[in-house]
Design a protein that fits this description.
The protein is an all-alpha fold and about 180 residues long. Helices cover about 75% and strands about 0% of the residues.
């Protein structure tokens, strides 16, 4: 399924999501790699098969390299772990857990195989979907340190929100048949 087909398959009540998906596919504030990597990372973070396939196909058509696609998937994978861990530390009242060694491997963060700025954006995108405030703050600070303007960071958040919503609609429609 193509991105256009995905948009066309959305029910009338989700028309705004389809319009937003089309707008974000043409987002000028991000490089194509940043934009399509954010789409791939977001789709994998939610994991709705129809949406993952449509976004993967669109990213391929847009020329996202295999290395960037792998790194975007890695961002979804590692942040899937980190977002749960760090969100839990934030929510727990017992501060002792924040003093313990993490003892979780996160090597891909140091060497993601793409520009670090791009990987940070994709990590922020996934963290938005997974609702981890600590991770959002950490990745936003890193992006700002690397010179990414707030409007470009916001574009990553917009991609996260639309891909998440589209995925939920597709899953809901599949559930009711």
């Amino acid at each position: 399924m193509s991105l256009d087909s995905l948009r066309d398959s959305l029910p009338a009540y989700a028309k705004d999501l389809g319009l937003n998906l089309a707008t974000l596919a043409g987002e000028p504030l991000l490089t194509d790699q940043q934009k399509w990597g954010a789409f791939v990372a977001a789709a994998h973070a939610v994991g709705e098969p129809v949406v993952v396939r449509a976004i993967e196909a669109a990213a391929t058509t847009a020329g996202l390299s295999d290395e960037a696609r792998t790194a975007a998937r890695a961002a979804a994978a590692i942040m899937g772990m980190n977002n749960v861990y760090y969100r839990s530390l934030h929510l727990m009242r017992n501060a002792e857990y924040r003093t313990l060694p993490i003892r979780l491997r996160m090597n891909v963060i140091a060497n993601p195989g793409v520009e670090k700025t791009d990987f940070e954006l994709w990590s922020l995108t996934v963290s938005a979907i997974n609702g981890c405030g600590l991770c959002l703050d950490a990745h936003e600070a890193e992006l700002r340190k690397r010179g990414m303007p707030p409007a470009a960071i916001q574009a990553g958040l917009r991609i996260a929100s639309v891909v998440n919503a589209v995925s939920r609609v597709v899953a809901g429609e599949a559930a009711v048949g």
